[in-house]
Design a protein that fits this description.
cell membrane; two-stranded antiparallel sheet; Na+/H+ antiporter like fold; sodium:proton antiporter activity; about 70% helix; about 450 residues
Length: about 450
C-alpha cells in the first residue's frame, strides 16, 4: 500500500499580498540587496557630480540633536548613519558570526580551517600591498581599506551563476566573508580609534557584563537587549572606540538556545491543536471563542520557545539592513566627485593601493593561504569544487564596497581628498573584481562535471 504524503495547503493570500508578491519575490532573491545597493550608489555618484552637488553634501551635514535630561547628542546626519544605523548592521554581522561559530561552517576546526585561512590571506596580502604602494606617505593609514569583502555583492554574483556553482562553494564564500568581517571589526577597534575615554568605556564594560548575566539568567525578550544595547552603544560612542563595535559585542550576548526541544514542541503542539479542535463547537469564529483564542496564544508561545532569540532577531533584521540601512549608507557615503582629470586620480597612491589590494591582493591572498592550508592537511576543498572554483571565488573577494567605504571614512577623517581617492579605487576595483569573478566562474560546469566523472 502506497504511503500518502499529507501536505498542508498554503494559506490563501490576501489581496494586498497578491499585489505585493512580485516585490516579495524580488526581496527574497540573493542578488536583490546588491541590486538596491548598486542603484543607491549610482544615485549618490550622480548627485555628487550634478549641479546639486552642494545641496547633496549640505544635506548629509545637517545637524541632528537628541536631548535627554541634561545630556545631548548632536551630530551630522552623515555621522548618525555611520555611527548609529551602521551599528545595527554590525549587530547583524555579529549575529551571523556567532551563528557560524555555533552551528555553521566555523563550528568545527576541520570545517573552519579553509575559510579562516583564506580570509586571513585575503586580509594580510591586500594590506601589505596597500602599505607598500603608500609607504612613507600620509595615505598609509588606509591600509585596512582593501581588507574587506562585501558579502552581499559577492554572493549576489554567485547567485547569478545559478546551479553551475555548487552549494558548498557558496557556503565557503559566506564563511570566508564572515571571518573577513570579524577581522574588519577587530581592525576598526584596535587601529582606527583615536583616543579613549576610559570612564565611558568602563560603563560600556559594566553594561556588557549585565547583558551576559541576563543571558545566563534566561532573559529572552528582544526588548530587554535593545534597551541595554542602546546604553552600550552610547557608552562606546562617547568612549572613542567606534560605536559600531558595540553592535558586535551586543550580538555576542543574544541567547542562541531554544527553550524547548523538538519532541517537547511536537507534544505541546499536538495538545494545543487537540484543544483548539475540541473548542471548535462554540462560537462562529476564533474571535468569539475564548478557548480557541487561548489555544492560538499557547501555540504562539510554543513556536516562540522553539526558536532561539538569535535566530528570530537575525531573520527580522535581515531585510531592514539589506533594503534600508545599507542603501542609506551608500547614499550618504558613495557620493564621490569625479573631476575632469580622472586618469590622474588613478595614479594617486591611495587609489592605486586600494585597486591593487582588492584586484590583485585579494585573489592572491585567498588562493595562496587556502592552498597552504590544504597542502598542510589542515583543511580540504569544498565538495564539488576544485582550485579553479577557489580562484573564481577569490576574485569575488575583491568586491570590498560597503566595509571598505566604511573603513575609508574612518582612516581619513582629516583628509577628505584621500577619502575621495579611496572611494574611486573601491568602486573601480569592486566592479572589475565582480566581472573577473563572474567570467572565471562561468567555466565551472565543465570543471565540476569532469571532477565528478573522475570520482
Amino acid at each position: 500500500m502506497a504511503t500518502q504524503n499529507h501536505v498542508l495547503p498554503p494559506l490563501r493570500p490576501a489581496r494586498i499580498q497578491r499585489i505585493l508578491s512580485p516585490f516579495v519575490r524580488f526581496a527574497h532573491a540573493e542578488s536583490a540587496g546588491g541590486i538596491v545597493l548598486i542603484a543607491c550608489t549610482l544615485v549618490a555618484i550622480i548627485a555628487a557630480n550634478s549641479p546639486w552637488r552642494e545641496a547633496y553634501h549640505t544635506f548629509w551635514e545637517t545637524p541632528l540633536t537628541f536631548r535627554f535630561g541634561g545630556q545631548e547628542l548632536s551630530y551630522a546626519l552623515h555621522h548618525w548613519v555611520n555611527d548609529g544605523l551602521m551599528a545595527v548592521f554590525f549587530f547583524l554581522v555579529g549575529l551571523e558570526i556567532k551563528r557560524e561559530f555555533l552551528v555553521g561552517e566555523l563550528a568545527s576546526a576541520k570545517r573552519a580551517a579553509l575559510p579562516i585561512a583564506a580570509a586571513l590571506g585575503g586580509m594580510v596580502v591586500p594590506a601589505l600591498i596597500f602599505a607598500a604602494v603608500n609607504m612613507g606617505g600620509t595615505g598609509t593609514r588606509g591600509w585596512g581599506i582593501p581588507m574587506a569583502t562585501d558579502i552581499a555583492f559577492a554572493l549576489g554574483v554567485l547567485a547569478l551563476m545559478g546551479p553551475r556553482v555548487p552549494l558548498s562553494l557558496k557556503v565557503f564564500l559566506a564563511a570566508l566573508a564572515i571571518v573577513d568581517d570579524l577581522g574588519a571589526v577587530l581592525v576598526i577597534a584596535l587601529f582606527y580609534t583615536a583616543s579613549i575615554n576610559w570612564a565611558a568605556l568602563g560603563i560600556g564594560g559594566v553594561v556588557l557584563v549585565i547583558l551576559v548575566i541576563l543571558n545566563r539568567l534566561g532573559a529572552r525578550s528582544p526588548l530587554t537587549y535593545v534597551m541595554a544595547g542602546a546604553v552600550l552603544w552610547v557608552a562606546f560612542l562617547l568612549s572613542g572606540v567606534h560605536a559600531t563595535v558595540a553592535g558586535v559585542l551586543l550580538a555576542m550576548t543574544i541567547p542562541a538556545r531554544t527553550r524547548i526541544d523538538t519532541q517537547e514542541f511536537l507534544d505541546r503542539g499536538r495538545k494545543v491543536l487537540d484543544h483548539f479542535e475540541a473548542e471548535g463547537e462554540e462560537g462562529p469564529s476564533v474571535l468569539t471563542n475564548k478557548g480557541q483564542q487561548e489555544a492560538v496564544q499557547e501555540m504562539e508561545n510554543a513556536c516562540e520557545a522553539a526558536q532561539a532569540p538569535l535566530q528570530r532577531i537575525e531573520h527580522e533584521l535581515h531585510y531592514w539592513v539589506a533594503f534600508g540601512i545599507i542603501p542609506l549608507f551608500a547614499l550618504a557615503n558613495a557620493g564621490v566627485h569625479i573631476s575632469g582629470n580622472v586618469l590622474a586620480a588613478f595614479r594617486e597612491p591611495v587609489t592605486l593601493g586600494v585597486m591593487l589590494g582588492l584586484i590583485v591582493g585579494k585573489p592572491i591572498g585567498i588562493s595562496l593561504f587556502a592552498w597552504l592550508s590544504v597542502r598542510m592537511r589542515l583543511a580540504e576543498l569544498p565538495y564539488g569544487a576544485d582550485w579553479s572554483a577557489i580562484r573564481g571565488v577569490s576574485l569575488l573577494g575583491g568586491i570590498g564596497f560597503t566595509m571598505s567605504l566604511f573603513i575609508s571614512a574612518l582612516a581619513f577623517p582629516q583628509h577628505p581628498e584621500f577619502n575621495e581617492d579611496a572611494k574611486l579605487g573601491i568602486f573601480v576595483a569592486s566592479f572589475v573584481a565582480g566581472i573577473l569573478g563572474w567570467l572565471a566562474l562561468r567555466r565551472l560546469p565543465a570543471t565540476i562535471e569532469r571532477r565528478e566523472a573522475e570520482r
